[in-house]
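Researcher: Quick sanity check before group meeting.
Model: Go ahead. Protein one:
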Amino acid sequence: MGKLILGIESSCDETAAAVLVDGRRVLSSVVASQDDVHAPYGGVVPELASRRHLEVIVPVGTIIIDAGWSPAGVWSPDELQVLTSPRDAGQKRLHATDYLLECR
């Protein structure tokens, strides 16, 4: 198998993770939407989005691992990619760290 890449995204109102081989073939992907959280307000509420990311990052990671993306059953991606934005960049690094530590 080629290089395994774990991607994590929590830039706005969704928390997502995917595992790719060589950056091209998707082995597994999961998205936790926040539509139900923000719908009553007519748009994204940053504080609610941040809290929701913290609530769902570990379950998202668990789903990725349980999907059996590693044929050898080994949790060792070759590369980690994390989508960040200027707003809450530090918080997103914490999400990624939580994801990795809790899911190992």
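Researcher: Fine. The other one?
Model: Protein two, sequence then structure:
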Amino acid sequence: MKHFLPNGDELIIRPPEHNDAAGLLASFQRLTRETDYLLFTRSESEELDLASEEDYIHSYLDNPNQLLLVAVVRGRIIGSINVNHSGLHKKAHTAEIGIAVEKDWNNMGIGRRLLTAMLRWTDSREGLKMVYLHVFSNNEKAMQLYRNFGFMECGRLPYAILQRDGYYVDLVTMYLPLKQ
């Protein structure tokens, strides 16, 4: 899918290709340097290598019940969204999502477009009744984006996340019932 950003740049949202591993890994490592809203730390992301990122991409390409989309601007991956299905029968109607967009590209509607593309994909998944996510309680902009899409808070794990500054924040679970 092609979109135009407010700055005039073209945004492409698409599934990853086999040769995207280096770009996806570089984006993830940039994200862990610039934000504390991800579970991985900078040092943990730097332990990842090209082979593990290739395996990560293949785990999505080889599984029709999972989704990985990348956001590309100026030929560079700057964000992504994924949908993970546990594979467990008792949870077959649910899937967990994760989303991240690099700081330089915030406030341009990329997260909204990634969520929209993901929800279009869920429309074709028979039996998928709900998607859910976890978000840090101090990530108010993300929580508002999710609320705008209809996600509702359903729980908090107090003091679950230790931030770089030494303070703890809650881990919030939000869910979205899907129309089917």
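Researcher: One line on it for the slide.
Model: The chain has five helices and eight strands.
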